[in-house]
Structure formats: structure tokens, C-alpha cells
Amino acid sequence: QALKSKTLDPEQREAFDVMTARNRLCVIQGRAGAGKSYTMGAAREAFEADGWRVVGLAPTNTVSRDMQKDGFKEASTVHSELLRQEGRRTNPRSRAKAWDNKTVVFVDEAAMLDNKTLNRLLEQVEQSGAKVVMVGDDAQLASIQRGGMYTEIRHKSDQALISQVRRQEQDWMKQAS
pTM for the full model? Predict the structure, then answer.
């Protein structure tokens, strides 16, 4: 149903299939301008249509706001959401809604997360039974603190690569990107 409103090329369709498969962890790798956000939007729509709670997270406010503009009803920074989820466990009166096995967490720019934060996120996913879709590019900006776990996870999990740059139209711009 979600694919009817989107035009995905074979690379994007493969990424869509990996995101919507029965895995609990997957990684979508792609350069800036390759159509990761567009493909993520199609997967978000599919999960919502199937009754899933969809959470969009990012390392920065700017990216989380972009996710909201792109249709994520729940979007915030990874740190804010982790504090809410962890606080919910220590404070029974917390209003934070718990993740569960019908929650899918999309993490955009996931390669920017430091190892400690990514580990906290994955522990929360494991405890709750949620699914996590990490989207990013390990060739882009890395975390200021110790990072690199995104790349290791990418090599050891279900993954797809979106390599063709779509945002730029001139060849020199695509190569630069």
C-alpha cells in the first residue's frame, strides 16, 4: 500500500524490503542525496499502515525536525528519547510511552552516534522488543566521542546500500557528493 504513492528504483526497493523485513535490526547505508530519507518515508508509511508505532530519532535537533517535516509524528533527538525511556523505568508516573514489540525506531544519521549512546539505544531496543532501523553514511561526519560501532553493526546485520546520488543533477555535483 505504501509503495503505491512512492516511486522507488531497485536500490531503494531493496532498502525498503530490508527495512520492512522481519528483522529487529537493520542498517541502510548511503551517501548524502542518495534518497535514504525518501525510502525511509515509504517504510514509515508501511509500518504506520500496519499499526506500528513509529519513532524517528536523530543525533541533532536539526535532523529530528527534518524528520518531523517528513511525516514522523514522533521525532526527537536520540538523547532526549533515551532519557524519556530510561526515566520511565525509574519513575512509574512518567508520561513517556514505552517502546514495545510493535514499535519501530528509525535512527537517521546513525553513524554520527558515539558508541556509548548507540549502546544505550540498542539496550533499550533489546529490553523493549522494538525494532530499530539505522540509516546513515559512515563516510560522513563521525561522532566527536569514540565511535565506529555503526560500521561494525552494518557489516554484521541485515543491510542495504543506496549508492546512486539522486539529489544533484549534474555529474560533477554527484561525484562531489
Answer: 0.85
- Tell me the per-residue pLDDT of 37-52, one tens digit each, with 9 for 90 and over: 999 999 999 999 999 9
Task: Give the contacts of 21 (CB within 8 A, at least 6 positions apart).
Answer: 158
What does the block give as the cell for 164?
546512486
Question: What is the three-state SS of the chain?
Answer: CHHHHCCCCHHHHHHHHHHHCCCCEEEEEECCCCCHHHHHHHHHHHHHHCCCEEEEEECCHHHHHHHHHCCCCEEEEHHHHHHHHHHHHHCCCCCCCCCCCCEEEEEECHHHCCHHHHHHHHHHHHHHCCEEEEEECCCCCCCCCCCCHHHHHHHHCEEEEECCCCCCCCHHHHHHC
